[in-house]
Write a structure and sequence with these properties.
The protein has about 550 residues and is of the alpha/beta class. It is built from 22 helices and 19 strands.
Length: about 550
């Protein structure tokens, strides 16, 4: 690990003395958040944008910090970075660094067990005082999120990225729009109204009756990606409004105890026994799934809408009428279970707490410069720089709004990964916030500024099904504990029985399998785990209040 000899030792001594003395000149943040510090008393000025280099472990990106955006960030802050990211398993590298105390200056760690392990080991410093003194943009942008990302001791050890609740859909019932029109559902393909179960089942039945074969090959009303059980169950749970946990009284239970879960299993089983579901679905791999979806012989599936990108591209290219090629794609729709309020469907689980935690390690010799660096990135200027690029080069301000240059949008359409690497746009997503900036343009240029026809309809049909899962975040037992082994066993048991229940020969057999599953879950320790869920839930509510 690199030595920190470049930091001025005398400056650090002076800074420590000033802080201990309560010197007010250090408590005044800058307006711009660009790293400039107020003038110090007697001893001269504390370093502002003077060059400094930090090591930064990023579990996601290992590119060198030298592209155009990186250069502009360094110009603005004086900070250059040596990015560290393993070619193998990031978790293994993180555990090794923690065990050896061979830590970089800054870290972007996936939220959850490994981040909690770093905090428990004292490897990350608390940020509260630093944010109070040097983080005006952090406080402004994160707001109450800082309260929600506190550790159990009440302190903040990291800044989240991709934080904040975004009304954006995830799962949906994906159906071919052109086929829907042929089957008589043309009035509902674009109007944003949900489908009832009767309407949806009617479409599946009509498809099988009208198209028993296509090009001489048997058709399938529905198929699924057997490698993505979460998307399958997530979509069907969504239509029933099933939450991540089943709340009953003062207790938090597994969602499989929700009475609506068994209703969901019965419905899925009815689709299977009516031959609407591909009998091979449980063993289908992603590549096979994409091939089936692109073949033209499948009417519907359940998935996150962005997972159908490849099949939809092929379907458009092979559309007989190129003037209507967009209609040949799979689009996401809201199907609502009987007795469920359409406004309470749960197709869009979104965690406002974000994906990663960006922290400052205890080996960082200049945490003040580090927090100022993060404060700039968290600012609106920093957000647009990371996600849009450089003003006058990649975008322009017109009539008070950020406007991307056409060549930038085209560059991402042609080669997302290559163009991002070349320019640095959207390469670094530290401290990035979901949603729009003050002028209404989204911070996420590539993902939100221009949406294709499928994404636009997804938003229209399913955006109001988004809900915040933050309150239930990371409620399971701590890693390495006996209860963690129980959690693994419980998950494996549910995964084992889920396809069996769906493909049972009858509803009675599906219910019997469900009862057997619940007995095995009890033996595996589900009740003990639910006490942990409930305890963590109550602690979370108390912490947030």
């Amino acid at each position: 690990m690199r030595k920190k000899g470049h930091v001025r030792f005398t400056g650090l001594i002076f800074l420590l003395m000033a802080l201990l003395a309560g010197c007010s000149s250090y408590g005044e943040p800058t307006n711009e958040g660009t790293g400039n510090t107020p003038a110090a008393e007697e001893e001269g000025e504390v370093e502002g944008n003077s060059p400094i280099k930090f090591t930064f472990f990023d579990r996601n990106v290992g590119d060198s910090f030298d592209n155009l955006v990186a250069q502009k960030i360094t110009e603005k802050t004086g900070v250059s970075l040596e990015i560290q990211q393993p070619t193998g398993n990031p978790a293994e590298k993180l555990n090794l660094m923690l065990a050896s105390n061979d830590l970089p200056d800054l870290m972007a760690i996936s939220r959850g067990d490994i981040l909690d392990k770093y905090i428990a080991a004292g490897a990350l410093i608390p940020l509260n005082d630093l944010i109070d003194q040097y983080g005006p943009n952090i406080k402004k942008m994160y707001g109450d999120m800082l309260n929600k990302t506190r550790h159990t001791d009440g302190k903040n050890y990291y800044l989240a990225n991709w934080y904040g609740l975004e009304q954006y859909p995830v799962f949906g019932f994906m159906m071919r729009m052109d086929v829907m029109k042929e089957l008589g559902a043309g009035d509902k393909v674009n109007n944003g109204e949900p489908f009832t179960v009767e309407e949806f089942v009617g479409l599946l039945k009509s498809f099988k009756e009208k198209y028993p074969t296509i090009d001489g090959k048997p058709t399938m009303a529905m198929t699924f990606n057997g490698e993505n059980m979460g998307a399958i169950s997530g979509t069907f749970k969504g239509m029933y409004g099933i939450m991540p946990y089943y709340e009953t009284g003062d207790e938090l239970k597994s969602d499989v105890r929700d009475p609506k879960y068994l209703d969901m299993i019965k419905f899925m089983n009815s689709l299977y026994t009516q031959n609407f579901i591909d009998p091979e679905w449980a063993t289908i791999k992603t590549q096979q799934y994409e091939q089936k979806m692109a073949s033209g012989s499948v009417f519907a599936t359940t998935d996150a809408f962005w997972n159908l990108g490849k099949p939809n591209t092929i379907l458009k290219e092979e559309a007989a009428d190129q003037s209507k090629k967009d209609e040949s794609q799979f689009y996401p729709y809201n199907v609502v279970a009987p007795g469920v309020d359409p406004q309470k469907t749960t197709f869009g689980p979104k965690n406002s707490l974000g994906w990663d935690g960006i922290g400052i390690t205890t080996t960082n010799a200049d945490p003040v410069r580090a927090i100022k660096f993060l404060d700039f990135l968290a600012s609106e200027e920093g957000q647009y720089l990371m996600m849009w690029g450089i003003e006058g080069t990649h975008w322009d301000m017109k009539d008070g709004k950020h406007v991307p240059r056409p060549e930038v949008l085209e560059g991402f359409k042609k080669d997302w990964a290559g163009y991002s690497t070349e320019t640095g746009i959207r390469k670094w997503t530290w401290t990035v916030k979901n949603g729009p900036g003050s002028d209404g343009t989204p911070y996420d240029l590539v993902g939100r500024y221009e949406t294709d026809a499928v994404a636009k309809l997804a938003i229209k049909n399913l955006a109001d099904s988004s809900f915040d899962t933050a309150l239930y975040d990371n409620f399971g037992p701590s890693g390495g504990t006996p209860e963690a082994i129980m959690q693994t066993k419980v998950g494996e048991t549910i995964n084992k029985y889920f396809p069996r229940m769906v493909m049972a020969p009858s509803e009675a057999e599906a219910v019997k399998l469900y009862d057997t599953m619940m007995k095995e879950l009890e033996t595996a320790g589900l009740a003990k785990l639910e006490k942990i869920y409930t305890d963590n839930y109550n602690k979370r509510k108390e912490l947030w209040n």
